[in-house]
Design brief:
Elements (H helix, E strand, L loop, with lengths): L1 E4 L12 H4 L5 E4 L10 H5 L1 E2 L2 E2 L8 H10 L19 H7 L1 H4 L16 H7 L9 H7 L4 H12 L2 H4 L4 H13 L10 H15 L2 H4 L4 H13 L9 H6 L3 H5 L5 H17 L7 H16 L6 H14 L7 H16 L7 H24 L15 H23 L3 H46 L8
Antiparallel strand pairs: 1-2, 3-4
Length: 464
């Protein structure tokens, strides 16, 4: 028996009250499942995203999910009331539902430029600085760094007016985006998304891009940066594949996380109707190109993108007057923004390194607990932050940012390469100190053991 619990629906032409902003849309779940226990696997095999379906064709799942967003409207007398449906997994619904967890402190619905005040506003005046401290900014905005930063940048470029974006819809979209990041993830959370968005802005300001990109390109770039890791579960693709996660099945083990981030972003765009005033063809093209940018962040495809980028630079064949070439450069910019942590000043880079390594180690702990093969870099007993970061810089970051510096040879590019060199040397130094300390401890332990043994031998029994 299926029981449908319908949450309140709000007309989109009125400001969104605080108590509705945090709630989830129409969620259906079986009355035989336990809200506070693990769902019956048989039920989960027939239900994805908390939406029941009959077909066994899982590749059509998101199409069916998205179809629900445009159907089932119940018009009010004014003809403006619409039902909205969230693309939520059952697990995410349980995790985030205010009905089950109580009403926490809400984000106030400010839609005016005066939303920024005090130190946060001062920081936004220097949002283009490469040493921008996103951790401090997140504290100053009471954990709302992604909302505040993205809205500021969209306004700074004049994109809200240019694309005639409804401020209530835009605010609700950004609130839901920030809310759908898992802030219990050490690394892949809304602060990381805000950091990537800020880095993307720095790249958009570079001369090669600023004089070539259209307003449409900039809008896509900022939205892709803000949503590029939406609903990240805190584990990597190999983990999802070897545990037979439904997302791995849905996307046939290919760019699993990136496809999920993209589809989640599309779901929020359609739910909030942010681009509903645009022609349908334009809206669909925007969704497709947003996906193309987000899919480019798949680290397993790093060499493919880097090889194409290197070939363009070797042949001097990039023409930024061509839309496809501008889009490719945006892909490379987002890839750089996504993994730019080694290029930040040491105080910031070190914090990010520790956070991403802790997320790796947490996955390794889960794998050990369930007797799974521990993924590379995820065993806290055999890896350190230093050796992971040195390897990442050597084989991933340095080749990418070296080519980016060839494309955009500016002060920012040289600054990033300089920071990365210093950070790599710092991690190497810390590694050497740790190794020396461990050797000293072993030596001292050996000396103590030898001394204790000699004291046990009676003096009269020594041979001379």
């Amino acid at each position: 028996m299926e029981v449908c619990y319908q949450l309140p629906v709000l007309p989109l032409d009125r400001p969104v009250p605080k108590h509705v902003l945090s709630r989830r849309g129409a969620i259906s779940f079986s009355s035989s499942s336990s809200l506070f226990g693990a769902p019956d696997p048989r039920q989960l095999s027939q239900r994805r995203g908390a939406i029941s379906y009959d077909s066994s064709d899982q590749t059509a799942l998101y199409i069916r999910m998205l179809a629900r967003l445009s159907c089932g409207s119940a018009s009010a007398d004014s003809g403006t009331e619409k039902r909205v449906h969230r693309l939520l997994s059952f697990q995410r619904y349980l995790h985030s539902s205010r009905l089950l967890r109580g009403i926490p402190q809400q984000i106030p619905l400010h839609i005016l430029d005066e939303d920024y005040s005090g130190q946060a506003k001062c920081m936004l005046e220097k949002v283009g600085n490469w040493n921008f401290d996103i951790f401090l900014f997140d504290k100053l905005t009471n954990g709302n760094s992604l909302i505040t930063l993205t809205l500021h940048l969209l306004n700074q470029y004049g994109l809200v007016d240019l694309f005639q974006l409804d401020m209530v819809k835009l605010w609700r979209f950004l609130v839901l985006v920030q809310e759908d990041y898992h802030n219990d993830n050490p690394y892949h959370n809304s602060v990381h998304a805000a950091d990537v968005t800020q880095a993307m802005y720095c790249y958009l300001q570079e001369p090669m891009l600023s004089k070539s990109l259209t307003s449409y390109d900039i809008l896509l770039g900022l939205l892709a940066a803000a949503t590029h890791d939406l609903d990240h579960p805190g584990v990597n693709q190999p983990f999802l594949i070897k545990t037979d996660h439904y997302l791995a099945t849905l996307y046939r083990n290919t760019s699993v996380l990136e496809n999920h981030h993209w589809k989640s972003a599309v779901g929020l765009l359609r739910e909030t109707g942010l681009f509903s005033h645009l022609p349908a063809e334009d809206s669909i093209n925007m969704e497709r190109e947003l996906g193309s940018l987000i899919l480019a962040t798949d680290i397993s495809r790093q060499n493919d993108y880097l090889s194409r980028f290197r070939t363009h630079l070797d042949q001097d064949s990039l023409c930024l007057n061509t839309a496809s070439h501008r889009h490719f450069v945006l892909q490379m910019a987002l890839k750089c923004a996504d993994i730019c942590n080694p290029c930040r000043p040491w105080e910031l880079s070190k914090q990010w390194s520790e956070k991403v390594t802790e997320e790796f180690f947490q996955q390794g702990d889960i794998e050990k607990k369930h007797k799974l093969t521990v993924s590379p870099l995820c065993d806290r007993e055999t890896n350190t932050v230093g050796n992971i970061q040195i390897g990442f810089m050597t084989y991933v970051a340095e080749p990418l940012f070296g080519e980016w510096a060839r494309f955009s040879d500016t002060r920012l590019s040289q600054t990033m390469l300089g920071h990365m060199g210093l950070n790599k040397a710092s991690w190497a130094g810390l590694q050497q100190e740790q190794t020396t300390a461990e050797e000293a401890e072993l030596s001292a332990a050996g000396a103590d053991a030898g001394g204790s043994h000699s004291k046990e031998i009676p003096q009269g029994s020594r041979e001379y």
